[in-house]
Amino acid sequence: MRAIVAKVILGYPCRGPRRPGVARSAPSFLVHEWDAGGDAKKGNEIRASVESGLREGRIVILLTGSRAVVPPELGAAADSTIYVTAPDRECLAAVLKAVDPVARRTSLRGLNLNAVTPVTLRLAYRPGTTATSYLRRLKALTQGSKEKASRFDSLHGIDKAKEWASALKLDLQLWRQGKISWHDLPRGLLLAGPPGTGKTSFAGAIADHAGIAFVPTSYATWQTSGAGHLGEVLKAMNAAFAQARLLAPSVLFIDELDTLGSRGGREQRDDWWRAIINALLEQMDGVASNEGVVMVGASNHPELIDSAILRAGRLEDRIDVGPPDVKALACIYAQHLAGRMEAGVDLQRIAWMSEGATGADVIRICKTANRRARHEARLVTTEDLIAAIGVDGVVDPQDLWRVAVHEAGHAIVAMAHSALRVGGLSLVSREKTAGHAAVSMARAGTLSPADLDAMLAALMGGRAAEELAFGDITAGSGGGDNSDLARATQMAVIAELSLGMRSEGLIWYPKVSGDRLVQLFGQRPDIEHAVRRRLDTAYTKARELIEARKPTLDLLAERLLARKVLSAKEVMDLAGKAGSEAIGPLACAL
């Protein structure tokens, strides 16, 4: 059987032993390939040929990438079903024997077996070629695929998503071997997260890792594929699904799903969007025809997606993709600067300085730093990277000391509470902020009133430190939605309205912000007063803690001003140097 498969792969006519009643000139085997995407006329021709072959007593072999696309009557007529796995060493030996019957045994060393497909096997063939020449071309064809597959290993900070992809790869192998059905595999995945976090790259890496085809598409692609009217849009959508079925097993990636919105969610042209979403759901529900197609969607605003798209059997799994954490950022830096940076560059420090950056941001930073070093004919230094990170904004030097004091104040208050952890301090200007203090809960789980009060005090620590050190304050604690005061206010509101921490009776409200929060305060002054009390208490507590630890505040601010960024360990060491007995439960915080 392997010899027959080998010859079919290479496009050879297959002839078996002579059978009584069959003309000698007619081959005993009749081979047809049936896959999704073919037109009805071709399907009818194959069906007629199969029926004719069976009447003549020939052995009919039907090749398909998915049994689900074979007409039920032909599938039921099969005497046996053989699941052919991806080409292995035994199959390759049969192919080489078919290519060059007189060749001696040829070594497969250096061949990337995972990248070998029927297509590469055919492309490597030339009439009259030797086994050695054939194998040399095959290695050249698969070498590029091996390098491409490494893209999966180069992705950092998305461990949960990589676990999903690895599980899918294993399931696909079992499905190809006939050990599980397609219904046992996950139908689809939604990747949700802000722009620039690598959702599209990861979708492609899923296909690379599993060794299957990648078919990217989007509503924008459908709309621009023709004249732009509804019929053309639906035609382009259907074509994308048809291509994915034709190339199955494959990943069909639908980007920017939130652009479709939700049915009934728009007053204008709702019929247009309703028709598109209904057509999309119909395509996604093609259980039989979609065998071998893994659907992956991406969205910057998943809350805008029609809920039916996210139901079981469609994009039933969801993974949130955010900016890489500090550990992942350090890995991305190491990957893109390998062999091009000086020994001793503290990538952990650089990663802390880059907190909040995306993978694309890191690549830009590395290119900028490398260009600076290249022009001076040397390797990349820490100073090159700091300069590249800080290009987004420049803080007036006379304000840097105040910013350093402000960020150190956050750390001082956080270190006084065992419920909090200080990740690091940064004095790098980025995205309209002059500095940053990474403060988080020390453990995941339920939030107690004491934990919430500790975080409120830490958020007020910057303002309290400024007032203590300079006798006045600036607007650094307020401003946008992500400012210290905004975050503290939101947290206090949630405590009063949603977390059951209100001292004047239990109540629950949904989350409110922006204009709705202003409206709520206007209608419920008692809630506004309760929020003010929480913030005032947190501010008083922060000021007391910092006043008792003034030497530590000065030391942290001075070192931050000099180094621009301090890691968690450096903050810990400096706090101990200033006198750990004045810090309180520092060891518990870090």
From TrEMBL:
GO terms for biological process: protein catabolic process; proteolysis. Keywords: ATP-binding, Nucleotide-binding. The keyword Signal does not apply. One of its GO terms (cellular component) is plasma membrane. Residues 185-325 form the AAA+ ATPase domain. InterPro entries: AAA+_ATPase (IPR003593), ATPase_AAA_core (IPR003959), ATPase_AAA_CS (IPR003960), P-loop_NTPase (IPR027417), Peptidase_M41 (IPR000642), Peptidase_M41-like (IPR037219). One of its GO terms (molecular function) is ATP binding. PANTHER family: ATP-DEPENDENT ZINC METALLOPROTEASE YME1L1, METALLOPROTEASE M41 FTSH. Belongs to the AAA ATPase family. This is AAA ATPase, central domain protein. It comes from Acidiphilium cryptum (strain JF-5). The lineage of its organism: Bacteria, Pseudomonadati, Pseudomonadota, Alphaproteobacteria, Acetobacterales.
